[in-house]
Write a structure and sequence with these properties.
Helices cover 25% and strands 21% of the residues. It is α/β, with parallel strands linked by helices. The radius of gyration is 22 Å and the shape is globular. The structure holds flavin-adenine dinucleotide. This is Pyridine nucleotide-disulphide oxidoreductase.
């Protein structure tokens, strides 16, 4: 039987901040929803990764949510209510945004593989197949947790979970929790879990606490360094690896309480806990991996975009265009992995791709 494809000029994969921004700009530039472009997203509802974030992440402690183009966050949600959970408020905003601008988001559709045939991309999904001349990939990181497999992983009789599965600290009451990881999420969740139960904090490298205030200038510098890396074809590093961890009032409080007594990484997981290289053992009920996420790009593997440095060389005005194949843009990737970065990347990707494809 011949393959049947739904043909579009541009296919956007992912409807988080990065995909919605790209969709808005494609439409604004005159690309028609439908045959001109569609957005595929594998979730049941709007909100991208935000719909899965833990309950204590509220409008008072998120780093700041940048407005999507054309409609403010405050136009959709009462942002004065700082107790509002991010996992409720932001999906509500995105839902209203998609409706207001009549963006052609099709869900739930999971893209499993993108290949190339006759100068078109063939997009395989769990539903119908698509064929496109250009791609804007905006799949984020939430779907690909980074979870190192330490020896003995499978023997542990307690519970192991990753940041992506966490909802609230209540479920750990009365349990000894080993928290692994040295990033912002690890520390935030260590603070929260240590309020209700006994914790042990473990990191690979000593945490890089720095006494300074995180200013927008520092943010720009950090993003510029990540951009430099991806333009050189290196894997993007996290912003924290560049800026270190600024000592916030919350961290100061944890330091005083002794919660941030860090232990080096253990060597092995046992049935009942963990064992360090010097033979010390510790029994625990839970191992909580706050070890970050990777960019979700596995579906693009057949296109062989990755180089032998493990990165993808990026080009274009905001480094969203794949140097090896200018018909592909990655938004929300590397320097644009924030709500503000994703916004700008969506605009740059839409404009550059339209120009390249002469639409
Ligand atoms: P996402 O929101 O993850 O959207 C990607 C979409 O693509 C999802 O709906 C996903 O399900 C879908 N998808 C993935 N793979 C496929 C596939 N194969 N087929 C179909 N669909 C697919 N940034 C800020 O600016 N301010 C903050 O305060 C802030 N706080 C953060 C807190 C945490 C805990 C974390 C982890 C990140 C935070 N960030 C923050 C970063 C920010 O969340 C993201 O960079 C930003 O939301 C960009 O989203 P995105 O569109 O790239 O990805």
């Amino acid at each position: 039987l011949p393959d049947i494809f739904y043909k579009v000029d541009i296919l956007v994969i992912g409807a988080g901040q990065a995909g919605l921004s790209a969709a808005y700009h494609l439409k604004r530039e005159g690309i028609k929803p439908g045959k001109g472009f569609v957005v595929l997203d594998d979730e049941f509802g709007p909100g991208g990764a935000w719909q899965h974030r833990w309950d204590s992440l509220t409008l008072s402690n998120v780093n700041g949510i940048n407005d999507l183009p054309g409609m403010g966050f405050a136009d959709a949600v009462n942002t004065k209510d700082k107790e509002l959970q991010a996992n409720i408020a932001i999906p509500k905003y995105y839902e209203q945004y998609e409706k207001t601008f009549e963006l052609p988001v099709i869900r739930p559709v999971r893209v499993s593989e993108v290949t190339e045939r006759n100068e078109r991309f063939i997009i395989r999904t769990n539903g119908i197949q698509f064929s496109a001349r250009g791609l804007i990939n905006a799949t984020g990181t939430w779907k690909t947790p980074n979870c190192p497999r330490y020896p003995g992983w499978e023997k542990f009789q307690g519970r192991q979970l990753h940041t992506g599965e966490y909802k609230n600290a209540g479920e750990f009451a009365g349990k000894h929790v080993i928290i692994v990881g040295g990033g912002i999420s690890a520390i935030q969740l260590l603070g929260e879990v240590s309020e209700v139960t006994q914790t042990t904090w473990v990191t690979r490298r000593p945490p890089d606490f720095r006494k300074y205030e995180f200013t927008p200038e520092l943010g720009h510098e950090a993003v510029a360094m990540v951009e430099k890396r991806v333009r050189a074809g290196l894997p993007p590093d996290s912003v924290v690896s560049v800026t270190g961890l600024p000592i916030t009032p919350a961290i100061e409080k944890m330091l005083k309480k002794g919660v941030l007594d860090r232990k080096p990484m253990f060597e092995e997981i046992t049935a009942t806990g963990v064992r360090w290289a010097d033979g010390t053992i510790l029994d625990a009920d839970v191992i909580f991996w706050n070890t970050g996420f990777r960019h979700s790009l596995d579906h693009l593997a057949p296109l062989k975009l990755m180089n032998d440095k493990g990165g993808i060389e990026m080009t274009g005005r905001l480094a969203t265009q794949v140097a090896k194949d200018p018909r592909i843009h990655l938004t929300g990737y590397g320097p644009s992995a924030s709500t503000i970065g994703a916004n700008r990347a969506g605009r740059a990707a839409a404009k550059e791709l339209i120009e390249f494809l002469k639409l």
